[in-house]
Amino acid sequence: MSNFNKNLLTPCPVLQPTEEEFMDPIGYLSSKPISELGKIYGIVKIVPPLSWKPEFQISPNFKFHVRQQVLSDLGITTRSRNFFKENLNRFLKMRRRRLVKLYFKVDGQKIYYYDLYCLVEKLGGYQAITSWRDINNIFKVDPKSKAIELEYDSAIKYYANFLNNNHNYEFPESDSDEEDNCLICGDNDDPEETLLCDNCDNAYHMKCLNPPLKQIPVTNWYCDKCLIGTGEYGFEENPEIKYSIPEFYQMCQEFDEEFAKNYNNGEKLSLDQIESKFWSFVDIEKSDLEVKYGADIHNLKPGEISGFPMSNTPNLDTSNPQIQYYINHPYNLTKLPFAKGSLLNYINTSISGMTVPWIYIGSLLSTFCWHVEDHYTLSANYCHFGATKKWYGIPSAFSDSFEKLMKKSAPDLFQKQPDLLHQLVTLMSPMKLIENGIPCVYADQNPNEFVITYPKVYHAGFNCGFNFNEAVNFAMNDWLEFGNRSISEYRPIKKENVFNYYELVENILKTFNQQKEKFENYELVKRSIDILQGFLLEQNSLLNKLKHKNLKVEIRPKHYQKRQFDAEQKGEVYEAEESLCYNCKTHLGFQYGILGNDELKLNNQLLTPQTSPQEIVKKEEAPQLQSIANSNSSIELSKFTKAKCEMDEFDLLILQAKKRSIEEEEDSNSTKRRKSKRILSLEEQQKINPTQRMKRVKKPQPSDSKKICLNCITDKKDIPNDSKLIYQSYPKDLFNLIELAKLNLKALESV
User: Fold this and answer.
1) N or C: at which end does the chain have fewer Cβ atoms within 10 angstroms?
2) Backbone φ and ψ of 631, nearest 5°
3) Which residues of 572-583 are buried (b: 16+ CB within 10 A; e: fewer)?
4) What CATH number matches the domain at 6-66+241-495, 2.60.120.650, 3.30.70.120, 3.30.470.20, 2.30.30.280?
5) Percent of the chain scoring above 90 in pLDDT
6) Residue 654: enclosing H or E segment and its boundaries?
């Protein structure tokens, strides 16, 4: 039985704007009283005026994929325990030891192997524990009992030692498309000396392992990746099966009837009963309950983009004033991201899933897991028809506390997948949040209602049956600092930037300088000046650190992308090339580097665990770049490659390159598509399925494949000699933009 208690949650504000307020969504939502509600509660529900009745517009040809969700796999605790058990048992098989279940019992108490491992590691590891009395007390076991210590010693001790000796999770990837090639060296020789992992079936030369093996193990043998695990998890999606809306509805009806028969004696469940059942399934350690969700649907043919009418919707009488009213209404989600006052007007491209809607077709218990929106923007979700969608939100003031709690609950998962909370595959019950002092707000969204989430508000939820929703993002003035914060918080976890934030800020100032008399929001201009100026000063500091590097300077005009969504005209969207740092996935900014091809690489192969219980393997030191750099050959070579120019000479090179750059690149009509990590690609599914073998194909690397931001190139100890420093915008020009904005602002404020 679930311990879910809805009375512990806080209902979100339900807002009913007037006709006039409803025509200005950004103005209304950013007004002081409503904005304050957003800060306090995180989510609000918008009930449109009674006159708002847009007709649902989707082509009869509309079809979509669904993803399969096993609810018991979504709970962060249950998934962590299962992953640990699977990896531990592979290790035990290699040592010919007894396999374990999820937990063992002492004095009637369940002791999960994963929980015991985490606790011991938190206390400093096995060697640091002088008494097990405290551990016994934590698990509510007789303090004098030796049972927990003995079980740890028997099942976990050697595996924990193996993990502690292998902190580097960069597993080897082969450049070969031959399945039997060694994954480390890429060669296909010595088949008699080649091992196949008994889980993933990948090939390894025994001589390539660290340390090398001299004979084939007599027991099962597993590679490092299958012993340590990657923490990867995603929803399966069959690319060959598509459903029409009537087909999916019929399937949902059959599932609802079967569910009511199995869990409520054939009677229809109330919303409260469904909610309680949902969270009990999430917390169950093993459940075969699987649901289907048509999520992140981004069809791009006319009539399949949105449930709202669009000017290119087939068979639509666009001459009808009523239809035109809804086509152009700012709450039409194809228009909201670029409504008056939305800061997404200042980005130079449309983004599928952010400024172009994604569609969500739900079924009973299908879920969206805890997440924040890309770049901490606001989101708007509209229910066209169907069953209630349940929402849970955490006010942004508690976002840091929420992140700490999630990381504390599954430290190993976050170590392997630092961006886990951005993958939308993890749940934790609101009851657990309340228990840890984190408030949780709820909303019950019904047809013809909007749910708005404010900046950096973690939210999750599920569907109470078949329904049809769609969602987009937008940004108001209060978001500006959240956007800046997202860049600094994305970099350490290598979360891909979806758009260029600092280019957005630059465009605000450019627009102000061009239209200063019409620009009303002086406060936005001031904050934009502070943000861009701070970023440029940081970039200049990084450029100064690079002044002695032997980098060829090159000027490249900025490559702009038209913002107009061309699906209405062409019926398709072309994916744009990403201008992201290859290392940290941050947008490259106004200046960046391109690494050359002679970059030194280290062998990051992990230690192979011992094949015999008696063997204790010590970690061998990998060759270090520093020792190579200090070699006699390196010192001799450095005499020829040492940078000669000081900052003045460096600037001169930049100016010369700038003069040579006289032609701008043509504008591109590309539209970006936001990537979703919520489903597994075919290759990722193969990594998890032990019956299939992975193929890795070496992809041709273009000369610009190693684009790197200033932060990352500055952090590198060794930069290849044929590397370049690219200027898309010259620092002086950008500072001039800021100074002009300051002068214009001062002149307008003095009037």
Assistant:
1) C
2) -70, 160
3) ebeebebbbbbb
4) 2.60.120.650
5) 66
6) helix 647-660
